[in-house]
Design a protein that fits this description.
The chain is built from 5 helices and 8 strands, in the order βαβααββαβαβββ. The chain has 183 residues and is α/β, with parallel strands linked by helices. The protein has an 8-stranded mixed β-sheet with strand order 4-3-2-5-1-6-8-7, with helices on both faces.
């Protein structure tokens, strides 16, 4: 059985939306290793439609280094009720069109290793609400954005209690945090 690992870039106030603002910061060697390790430890990417389409438009043009090659080659699951098979052409892609919780749970049962979720706010919130996230890998940047989509929005039922697995600082004050389900 696989594990669902959510990885996000966050501001101090929890904003994850459109993270181009992260380019203003140096995430340092440890930050680069944090991202490299999680991608190369993953068996598949699990993405929402919006993130999938954004990545599918960008990554094929950035495949020159090992990270880009891995992003393009890794198998992908995309959760979407609207994405057609004809539009799911970024490498080996499987579209999950049914019940999100059932289909993602089935994929987790089939996959050995990590299902890495990047971005994909709506998907992550659904997974968290149903206690399907096994690990959060967060890069918290020293900036307050004030508004935007948050990892855990107001009114969202709280996920399971978490235990800190790792906490480091890198680059220009970027926190590298890993949380696992407690117990």
């Amino acid at each position: 059985m696989g594990r669902i690992v959510v990885t996000e870039f966050l501001s101090l106030d929890g904003v994850m939306e459109e993270p181009r603002w992260t380019f203003d910061f140096d995430r340092g060697e440890a930050g680069d290793k944090f991202k490299m390790d999680e991608l190369f430890d993953a068996t598949v990417l699990l993405l929402g439609r919006v993130t999938y389409q954004g990545f599918a438009a960008a990554w094929p043009n950035m495949g020159g280094d090992d990270f880009g090659k891995r992003m393009n080659a890794i198998p992908k699951y995309v959760v979407s009720s609207t994405l057609s098979d004809e539009d799911a052409t970024w490498g080996e892609t499987t579209v999950l069109r049914g019940d999100v919780v059932r289909d993602v749970s089935a994929a987790r049962d089939e996959v050995e290793g990590n299902l890495l979720v990047e971005g994909s706010a709506q998907l992550v919130q659904t997974l968290a609400q149903h206690d399907l996230v096994d690990e959060y890998r967060l890069m918290v940047f020293p900036v307050v954005l004030g508004n935007g989509k948050r990892l855990f929005p107001d009114g969202m039922p709280a996920p399971a209690k978490l235990a800190l697995g790792q906490a480091d600082t890198s680059g220009s004050g970027v926190l590298l945090l890993t949380y696992h389900k407690a117990g």
